[in-house]
Amino acid sequence: MEVIHTFLNLAAPPFTFFTLLLFLPPFQFFKFFLSVLGTLFTEDVAGKVVLITGASSGIGESLAYEYAKRGASLVLAARREKSLQEVAERARDLGATDVVVVRADVSKVEDCRRIVDQAINHFGRLDHLVNNAGITAVAMLEEIEDITDFRAIMDINFWGYVYMTKFALPYLRNSNGRIIVLSSSASWLSTPRMSIYNASKAAISQFYETLRVEIGQDVGITLVTPGFIESELTQGKIMNKEGKHIVDQDMRDVQVNVIPIMNVESCAKAIVRGATRGERYVTEPTWFKVTYFWKAFCPEVLETMYRLFYISDDPREAIGKKVLDYTGVKSVLYPETVQFSTAHASIMVMDLVNTFLNNSLPGFSIHAFLAFFPVYLCYKALYYICRSVFSQDLAGKVVLITGASSGIGEHLAYEYGRRGAYLVIGARRENALREVAENAYWLGSPRAIPIRTDVSNVDDCKRLIEEAVNQFGRLDHLVLNSGVTSVSLFEDIPDVTNITPAMDINFWGMVYTTYFAAPYLRMTKGRIVVIGSSVSWLNEPRLGFYGVKYLFFVFVRVFNLRSASKAAVLSFFETLRAEFGSDIGITIVSPGLIESEMTKGKFLNQDGNIVVDQEMRDVVMSATPMESVARMAKAAVDSACRGDRNLTFPFWYEALFLIKICFREATDLFQRWFFITEPGVSAREAISKKIIDLPLLKDILWPDSIRSPKIKTN
Fold first, then answer.
1. Which residue ranges does UniProt annotate as crossing the membrane (predicted)?
2. Which of 529-533, 545-549, 554-558 has the highest mean pLDDT?
3. Is 197 considered catalytic here?
């Protein structure tokens, strides 16, 4: 196994480079040709049925008007019925053939079922589902008074979309319809004070990227990532640190900063135009695409800019806020609809500003990148060498590890133990934890304390941190490893609420533990080590709810929810980097396939039960080489001691990231062909399963440790 991974680590980078050099130009030309065809043969939505959530204001309201102008029949849903009725009346005047209003809260699964049922009962069909409902929270993680109040962000922004899609998908299949997903550029931008919001949008994006592979061409998906658009959100309507919904325009100025706000009507028109053309992605204003480019290649640059313009002891004293207040630039950048003051910009001025940026910023960014990137790479190389020379000594440090009863967490405990660290290890299986603690002690840990913990329970997370600090008086490393994998095609899940543990453990478990640990980590200039997953960027089917934990070939069937949860984790901690600065280091580890109970076949199935299913494991993982858990643990601890920001292990997985970004459509087609079977055909007939069943292939690619279905019990 080590020889295979060494070969791939050496061969994958040059192979990827030559693949991009050879195939990227013709592939981009082909995409351009398809986009031209899309502009010539747009969908006529006249008479079609469009369901829009969050339609009482902002983007949802303007989308209703834009569809109405094109003659569509509308189903409008939101919590404010009076506002909905006003929107419905204007939509009728603009040309909507019929409008149905449904008062509902999308965070409630039964309300989502009722919305879809009323649409079908009234119209008998559904053509477009527009998932738009959302709320924003603005608060530093450490300032939040009760972290559980912020679950509402994920309940509405993520689960509301999932529930609506679950109930609408059968009808959309019948009509070869389309899902329009209002995500956000926040899914890749790490704006401080918006960690939970950013995470919810990243989860949305990853969930629908995975769903594309699962449903194929039967239902189109248009993923919309707007920047700042005039709406109630940019008027200052936020959830504050106390969990209350308020209007705070000063805090709005801090968060929007010196970024132009786009006219909502122009945005809605672009979204509907993109959807009717069958576009996979719509970003408005288009210049926001540049920020993705910089985030991907120079994340430290954006992080530094955020800390410069957004962070200060008093948010209203932030540099970005002062620039707005003292220069009068707000009158150019913000339209009148989002301001209560007399200083505002006209829609014409706003359109001119965004048009100028759309035309000039991409070219400017390319030239700046070409000039700056070589210097940036040299700086990173030198900095890496310095970190390697002055690596942290862990002897006597206090390390807390969650999910430490088996797999990666267990071997991280052993690796920290060998280096003389004091350990506090948490998991649900107490007997297994005690065995790990005893082994870590004999390997060199001065003391290892096992604490039975369920990280999905906020009180357990608080108790875990308090006991660690009470025992040792400090905390130096927090290692977040707990996770569960759900494996099922989205449409096969009978009750989607069965899969909520994937988000509760994989995301909220990490959020809760970090929330309680952050004050103690600040005191020691400590570090958070986040065990994510390569699933956060590889959209494997059946892994939509999981997110970052497995590999390119493992994403097809299982991880719809897990990929979403791990993408949320990645976004959350990327945002915390900007909030914490140099006070708390963060190392994000993205492992590929590692020997563990998960790679033995331990999954959360479609009924919400933990099972060991090695045949489904074979379907999902196929002929992917598996890495040793001991080697992975050593690499993770080495990386944390060096102070690395990110670690991908094995290294060759990074090549998959480049291929995924550059050939999204091609990789989606491959994954569907490789992992998905025709309706009515068992998943065990997938090509991925047939390949791994070839003689001797498992013996070559997989270690003996994962052959047995036996897992630890309590």
1. 7-27
2. 529-533
3. yes
